[in-house]
Write a structure and sequence with these properties.
about 475 residues, alpha/beta, Aldehyde Dehydrogenase, Chain A, domain 1, Aldehyde Dehydrogenase, Chain A, domain 2, 2 domains, 7-stranded mixed sheet, 6-stranded mixed sheet, 24 strands, about 20% strand
Length: about 475
Amino acid sequence: MSATASVAGVAVSPDHYIGGERISSSATFEDVSPIDESHLADIARGGADEVEAAVQAARHAFPAWAALGPEGRGEHLFRIADLIEERTETLAQVETLDNGSLLEASQLRLMKRAATNFRFFAELAIERDRRSWESNGTAYRVRHDPSGVAALITPWNAPFMLETWKCGPALAAGCTVVLKPAEWAPLTASLLGEIADDAGLPAGVLNVVQGLGEEAGAALVTHPGIARISFTGSVETAQLIGQAAARNLTPVSFELGGKSPFLVFPDADLDAAVETATYQYDNAGQVCLAGTRLLIEESIADEFLEGFLAGVAQRKLGDPRDPETDIGPLITHEHLARVEGFVQRAIDDGARLVIGGRVSPDLGSLYYEPTLFTHVRQDLEIVQREVFGPVLTLQTFGDEDEAVELANGTEYGLAATAFTRDDDRGERLGEALVAGTTWINCFYARDLGAPFGGAKRSGIGREGGEWSFDFYADVKTVARRT
């Protein structure tokens, strides 16, 4: 049995999970909690050898796993979902220490969603109809055959939920998986391997390789035995993965950065809009979907800003284990330096700093205050590039056309949010805003059956519902003369 680290009183293996066994590496990397910068574990630092072993284990397990069919695979995935629900508290405690996310959010929302990710896609695989029709004396049927080994690369901001968001549909579709979690928050991925083992998932169906992106990640995306690559992260990393995947003609699915607009019109429920806008600081702004560009109609801008500042003043920055805390720490000092760089350059560019712009003097060194800039031009870096921290900008617009022009005026297109009581305007915005998801009078509403992904530089492809199965399968047409 491999050595374990004690994290929040939970035994967590720092090793890889390959072919149903724990495998160590000669090198390690340090995992540190952003809450108090305490040492959590020395994690196995995988590379080409570990990736090779994981891919071979997944390829060996693939034929039998694919042959089980949706019902047989579903039995395993339902057991995994049950175990996730049973271990919600354990998973939440470990993840909060590992990435600094709010403990209450993990307990009440993220871990439940993680279980749902397995259960929903297992049920969908069983229930969905195969499309068939007849034309000119020929019967046509569409099959979704499992494609092979899927490489899944996940981020650190909601690690366990996003790992299950990829593993659930990939496994339900009949693929076997090599999961490479983010090195800044790897611990719950290790626990996912343990859960899969306890659920009786056949060896090699799910493999977890820990390591750095430029080592384990690079070896994984260049491996010729990989049939699909799904990645959530930065545009820059996706560009490297895309180049590597192109050499093997490996299909990719990318969910990338966002610089989402948050539009408020004069006829909006202003209280609801203000409250939702303050929520954009959730998880210290480390949320790709966050509406970081507040676009407010000029006639209500002063009233909105007054309410917004009052609302932000009520949001508590602090230890994410405290149920009274609304905003926790940034993930690492490296990421803090990135956020600070954006803020300083915005100040240098003439943007007006209204609140924040610094690490809280009363907390640890990674607790960055909610920050807002006004008097920003559309061409400024702070408007155009993703900060991935608790930093928002506020711009005003005169009419709907200008609002849409500003909203669409970046290279991103992941999400958009708009508040208006005018149903016709809501319909027009749904059509005009360039975004993978547009929310009207709501935010973060997600149904697993709906497609999810980004336009422009925010991604390639869609995940969710049938779109996940289209990606993880080889879609085949069978034609038979009647």
